[in-house]
Write a structure and sequence with these properties.
Structural class: alpha/beta
Strand order of the largest sheet: 1-2-5-6
Number of strands: 6
Largest sheet: 4 strands, parallel
Radius of gyration: 45 Å
Distance between the termini: 70 Å
Order of helices and strands: HEHEHHEEEHHEHHHHHHH
Number of domains: 2
Length: 483
């Protein structure tokens, strides 16, 4: 037994000093804590609980800790062959109490165990927990399995961050015991889960770590960026996929109105002097109706185009958002797409200005040729030929005017199209910024909650933190739909 313990303890010490730098979990300290769990109610081997403690002491340093978890007999009462449980427990506790008095008496003992002399000059346990079958709420448990599970959970928690809180409780309790001195010639030696209770609030811990899991999901899936992503390439591919490239490509203006798709001017055959007024009126009416027709068709086409391309944009961004680090990569994409769309829009504005200057020249020519036709109608000689020449020139002017008007309308609608695309992109960017800020706030509050739980915060502080967390959660839920 001694040889087996020697191998186990050496393995533990070698583990604490030989850990790799990239281990997932940090050690709470370099000291060793040994927990001995057993019953003093009797049964095969239970009488060795004290010997095991003394043997383990041989391998511990002054900074290490030895903790005993002693199960009392009440959980066994009523089971077959348990009539000696209470006497066994009395004898075992009395013997334990005798050796725990070494803390104040300073006596030493020596005895032989397994052919080896064991020197007893220290208390067998630094901490002894006495465990019965009734908890702090006076709930009585009748199953040994329930108590062993309870002890197992307590041991598990003592190894993690919650163990720091448990250690703090014991440090305070140990100081209190030491200050008590003796009562009727005896020193207080024991604790129980009713005095220094290790309380595991399952609901609070599960809520806290569920939020941490959600936080890790947000950070891992939404926040951050892929160092290898080629955003510029993605933007250009998206523009080509959506067929919204402007400039030489002219994809948007082509979708608004096909060039030359306007009704042509029909001039009546009667170009006599008396018919000039009605001919000129017919030309003006044609120009008005052609402009209205182009405006209506361009508006219909623009609305259909916007609907299709906005949906394409939404589908693309939603797909990108679902990728790893989706929030950041989507924001990076929009950050480069917006200047490209602004550039296309600016090209449309500049081309519109050029077409507007051309339209002014054409309208000046129409005015001149109208006046010439009116003067020709007033002539007595050569009127018919002059009228025919002026109307022919007007017919060419109206065709040029229709072309210029159509180009202006096409570019007006293209500017409008890019405005709506830019508005949707900027809305996405604002909402992605908001999600990023909300995620940062969630990081702050979850970390604050963790710290406060580990420090043993008051219920009032915990409720305040939970209230703030709830506000952040509601804020994030309000952003569940970006479109």
């Amino acid at each position: 037994m001694f040889k087996a313990l020697d191998g186990v303890m050496n393995g533990i010490r070698n583990f604490t000093v030989g850990r790799k730098a990239d281990e997932k979990y940090d050690l709470k300290s370099m000291d060793i804590a040994v927990n001995i769990v057993g019953s003093v109610a009797g049964g095969t081997g239970s009488g060795t609980f004290m010997d095991v403690a003394f043997l383990v002491r041989e391998f511990l340093s002054s900074t290490d800790t030895l903790v005993g978890y002693i199960l009392l007999p009440d959980i066994f009462r009523g089971l077959p062959a348990t009539q000696n449980c209470d006497p066994n427990t009395y004898g075992a506790i009395k013997e334990l109490d005798h050796f725990m008095d070494l803390r104040t008496t300073g006596n030493t003992f020596k005895y032989t165990f397994g052919g080896r002399d064991i020197v007893v000059d220290k208390v067998p346990f630094d901490v002894v927990y006495i465990v019965n079958n009734t908890n702090a709420d006076n709930v009585v448990y009748s199953s040994v399995d329930v108590l062993t599970e309870f002890l197992g959970i307590g041991l598990f928690l003592s190894t993690g961050s919650a163990g720091k809180g448990s250690d703090d409780i014991w440090d305070n309790l140990a100081a209190q015991i030491t200050a008590q001195g003796k009562w009727w010639g005896k020193s207080p030696q024991y604790s129980c889960y009713g005095i220094a209770e290790l309380y595991f609030d399952g609901a609070k811990f599960s809520k806290l770590y569920a939020r941490q899991v959600a936080l890790d999901l947000i950070l891992g899936s939404l926040v951050g960026s892929d160092e290898h992503e080629d955003v510029s390439r993605d933007v250009e591919n998206f523009i080509d996929l959506m067929e919204i490239r402007e400039g030489e490509a002219g994809q948007v203006v082509e979708a608004v109105l096909a060039p030359g798709s306007y009704r042509r001017l029909n001039v009546p055959g009667d170009l006599s002097r008396g018919a000039v007024g009605s001919v000129l009126a017919n030309i003006q009416g044609h120009m008005n109706s052609v402009e209205a027709e182009m405006q209506d068709e361009a508006t219909r086409n623009l609305n259909a185009l916007v609907k299709t391309k906005i949906k394409g944009l939404e589908d693309y961004l939603n797909g990108r958002l679902r990728r790893a680090n989706g929030v950041q990569t989507t924001w990076n994409f929009l950050r480069e797409l917006v200047p490209r769309l602004e550039n296309f829009q600016q090209v449309m504005k500049e081309e519109r200005r050029d077409e507007a200057k051309n339209l002014e020249q054409v309208e000046s020519a129409i005015k001149v040729h109208r006046e010439e036709a009116e003067r020709a109608a007033a002539k007595f000689f050569g009127a018919k030929k002059s009228i025919e020449t002026s109307v022919k020139q007007l017919r060419a002017d109206v065709s040029a005017w229709s072309n210029a008007q159509q180009e202006i309308i096409r570019r007006d609608r293209a500017v409008n199209f890019f405005s709506q695309m830019l508005e949707r992109c900027r809305k996405w960017m604002e909402q992605l910024d908001t999600i990023d800020k909300a995620a940062s706030a969630l990081v702050k509050y979850v970390n604050q909650m963790r710290v406060e739980v580990e420090r043993g915060a008051t219920e009032e502080v915990r409720q305040q933190i939970e209230s703030e967390l709830s506000d952040v959660q509601q804020y994030i839920e309000s952003l569940s739909t970006l479109a």
